[in-house]
Amino acid sequence: MITDVLILAGGSGERLWPVSDAKRPKQFMILTDGESFLQAAIRRAVALDIPGDICIVTRKDWTTLVLADVISLAARLGRPAILNKVLVMSEPCGKNTAPAIAWTAKYLLSLNRADSPNILMMASDHIIKPLDAFIADARTAGAHADRGNLVSFAIPPTFPSTGYGYIKTGEAFHSTLEDASASFRIDTFKEKPDAATARAYLEDGHYYWNSGIYAFRADFYLFELERLCPEAFAAFANAGPGCMIETVDGIRVMTSYDGLDAAYERSPSISIDYAISEKCARSVTVRASFLWDDVGTWDSLAKYRDDLPAGAVSVNSRNCFVDSDIPVALCGVDDLVVVIKNGKALVARKGDTGLVKDALAQMKEKGLA
Predict the structure, then answer these.
(1) Which among 18, 28, 22, 27 is positioned nearest to 347, based on CA atoms?
(2) What SS3 state is found at 366?
């Protein structure tokens, strides 16, 4: 079973600029029903009914935002006990996912429970639904992880995406689980393909999107990290177990962890995919029965907001998306994305919002971002 959940909330979400910025990145954006991406992730973690902790790893500058989201969610759900489940852990700097997981695994192991923590790791800024399907798949993954496997979630592709990495499935993974037919050994991981390759993957039927969600035992993760990415493992060799945890508004906040700054300084910036999963001999994937979207561009976000906002009007215009702090009039234009937030404006043709990150880089060079 899953004992603990790790929610990674340290990303900058640059592809959703100008709403997502360094002061309030994507995971704190409100999507639907007044709930942020992060709050939706916490709600999923709560629904797993785990005995351990919901660890949220974020940047120090965003700790206050995380606390506010947790408090607001607990109040909205009428479940103050949520506050007691959450532990906020602030990174000294961003070094991708593998170091954050190593830190969390070491901390949870230091609690000296009867057995190794069995962790579900997920991002703080994805759309996943329905909840019951996710919970069922997570429990399957937890059972596989408890047997000493690195478990991912394979998303059945609905179109030939060039923006996602892929998993090629191998033989069915047999276990004592009733639904083991939905689980497979992983043949290989594939990087983001070109358009022709993506179409071939879709037609093949054995390729799935890599969701970036993983389940693993803490001791197994550190064992594999030492074997497959020794430089990252060595960086944390002298970190912990001493730490200081304070309670802020009923939520635990780790204010210090012995040797953490030095560990992050020495560690390479590397993802779990490159550090472990692409080389791990015990990689298993669960074919997801839930819908998943990493909402990485304004094009993908626009799918979840059908109507123009109250502050926009459209005259002889079609298929446009608007998110703005000021009134916007669309006249004789089609297929546009118009975002005016935080004193900055984005105008893009639908289908081209993947270029936002490149545009933002140029804006930063000119001191305009």
Answers:
(1) 18
(2) coil
Please write the tens of the pLDDT for every residue from 166-202: 999 998 886 655 554 589 999 999 989 999 999 999 9
For residue 32, CA distances in Å to 128, 230, 272, 301, 316 come to: 13, 42, 30, 11, 28
Residues β-bridged to residue 87: 55, 252
Nearest CA among 340, 240, 265 for reference residue 298: 340
Please name each of the domains of the chain with its CATH number: 4-296 (3.90.550.10), 299-365 (no CATH)
| 42 in Cβ contact with 73 (< 8 Å) | yes
Two structure tokens written together for 358: 């490149």
Residue 50, classified by CB atoms within 10 Å of its CB into exposed (0-12), middle (13-18) or buried (19+), is buried
pLDDT of 140 > 90? The answer is: yes
Read off the tokens for 140.
Answer: 């399957």
Is residue 346 classed exposed, middle or buried when 0-12, 13-18 and 19+ CB atoms within 10 A define those classes?
Answer: buried
In the structure encoding, which two tokens stand for residue 273, read together? 């995919």
Q: Give the C-alpha separation, 81 to 53, whole Å.
A: 12
Helices 37-47 and 63-77: crossing angle, nearest 10°?
60
Render pLDDT for 38-86 as a digit per residue (tens, 0 to 9): 999 999 999 999 999 999 999 999 999 999 999 999 999 999 999 999 9
Stated pTM of the model = 0.94
Strand partners, 185: 284
Burial of 179: CB neighbours in 10 Å, binned 0-12, 13-18, 19+: middle
Residue 155 per-residue DSSP state: E
Cα–Cα distance, 144 to 216 (Å, whole number): 8
Tens-place pLDDT, residues 237-294? 999 999 999 999 999 999 999 999 999 999 999 999 999 999 999 999 999 999 999 9
